[in-house]
Amino acid sequence: MQKLNFYFYFFLTCFCYNQASTQTSEVLLPIYLSQIDTQSIKSHLEFLSHDWLEGRESGEKGQFIAGLYLKSQLQALGYEPIFQDSVHQKSFFQHFTFGKINPRKSFNVAGILKGTELAHEYIVLSAHYDHLGLGKNGVYNGADDNASGTSTLLEIARIFAKLKKEGYPPKRSIIFLFFSAEEKGLLGSEFFTDNPPVNLQNIITNLNVDMVGRVDEKHQKIQEKNYVYIIGSNFISDDLHELNEKINREYVNIALDYSYNSKIDKLRLYYRSDHYNFAKNNIPVIFYFSGLHDDYHQVTDTSDKIMYDKTLKIAQLIFGNAFYLAYNNIILRKKKEMD
Ligand SMILES: [Zn+2]
Predict the structure, then answer these.
(1) Which of 56, 78, 107, 163 could form a disulfide with 131 if both were Cys (CB 3.0 to 4.6 A apart)?
(2) Average pLDDT along the chain
(3) Could you report the per-residue pLDDT of 281-294, keeping only the tens digit for each?
C-alpha cells in the first residue's frame, strides 16, 4: 500500500507539473490581462502631459523631469537598469547628444525584468516620451503624442512586475524602453539600435506604441472607437502577425485596421515612429497607433480628450502579445528576404 501510494503520487506530480508548464501561460494570461487598470494609465498620462512639464521637448527641463519620472516608476516596480554610464555603473539612462548646429543632451530610459531560462532573449516594448515643448501658442502637452503610449507601457510594466512578484517570472527578459528625441527624427531609437546594450539579434520583437488615445476622423464617421491600426506586423515575420491576430481574437476583440500597413502608403507611417529603427535591423515589429486627428502636433493635444477605454483595449492587446512571447518558447520565424 505504501509503495503504491508513493508511485501514485510520483506520477500525479509529474502529470501535474507537465500540465502546469504547458498550460500556465494560457491560464495566467486572461487573469493578469484583466488587471490592467484605466485609472493608472490616466494618472501617468495626466502627469506627463501637464503644463508643468512644458511639452517635454528633448534636451529641455520637462523632458528631464519626465525621464526621471519613468526611471522612478521602473525602479519602484523592481526593474533593473540595462545601460552603463561613463564610469561603468549600471544606469536606467542612455545619454546621447543630438543636433549638429546646436548640440543638445538627452537620454532614453529603460528597465529590464530578467527572464529565467531564456534570459538572453528580449521582448522590447517601446514608446517615445518626448514631445514638441513650448511654442508661441503655448504648451504642446502631447497627451496623445505620446503620453498615451508611455502611460500604457508603464501600466503594462506594473502587471509584469506583479506576475513576477506572485511567483510567475517570464522565461524571456522583458525590456521597457522609453525614447527621447523621436520628434527630432527618431534620434533616440536610432542611437539605441546603433549602441545597443544587448545583442540586437537576441531581440525577439519590438512592440512600439505611439498615439493610442484618440479616435480619427475615419472611425468617428463610422462610430467605431474600439480599433487600432496595426502597422508592420507581417513585414518581417508572419508568425508575429498571426500571434497578434490570435491574441486579439481570443482575449481582446478590438478591430484591427490594416489601412496603413504598407511601405508605399502616402503617409509613410511605417517609417515615422521608433519601431522602424528595429525593423531596419530585421527585428519583427508591430507599431500600435490609433490615427491622426486635428489636435496632432497642436497645443490642443490635451489629456481631457483621451479616450481611456480604447487605450485600455490596446494595452490589453500589447500585454497579451508580450506575455505570450515572454512566457513561451515559441520562435517567430523571419521571412528569408527583406523586401
Ligand atoms: Zn509626434
Answers:
(1) 56
(2) 93
(3) 999 999 999 999 99
Whether the CB-CB separation of 126 and 179 falls below 8 Å is answered with yes
- Give the pLDDT of residue 86: 79
Per-residue pLDDT at 228 exceeds 50: yes
Give ∠ CA 134-178-35 in degrees, rounded to 5.
110
Distance 96 CA to ligand 1 centre (A): 20
CA 146 to centroid of ligand 1, rounded, Å: 7
Neighbours of 22 (CB within 10 A): 10
Work out how many domains the chain is built from and give that number. Answer: 2
145 and 14, same structural domain?
no
The rounded Å distance from CA 131 to ligand 1 centre is 6
CA of 130 to the centre of ligand 1 (A): 8
CA atoms within a 13 Å half-sphere pointing along the CA-CB vector of 183: 20
The more confidently predicted of residues 192 and 339 is: 192
* Residue 94 Cα to ligand 1 middle (Å): 21
Q: Report yes or no: 29 and 324 within 8 Å, Cβ to Cβ.
A: yes
Domain hosting 93: range is 37-327
- Sequence-ordered strand ranges (E) for 210-266: 227-231, 255-257
Residue pair 278/239 in contact by the 8 Å Cβ criterion: no
pTM score of the predicted model: 0.92
Express each pLDDT in 169-227 by its tens digit.
999 999 999 999 999 999 999 999 999 999 999 999 999 999 999 999 999 999 999 99
Considering the domain architecture, whether residues 96 and 198 belong to the same structural domain is answered as yes
Query: 182 CA to middle of ligand 1, Å?
Result: 7
Ligand 1 midpoint to CA 297 (Å): 6
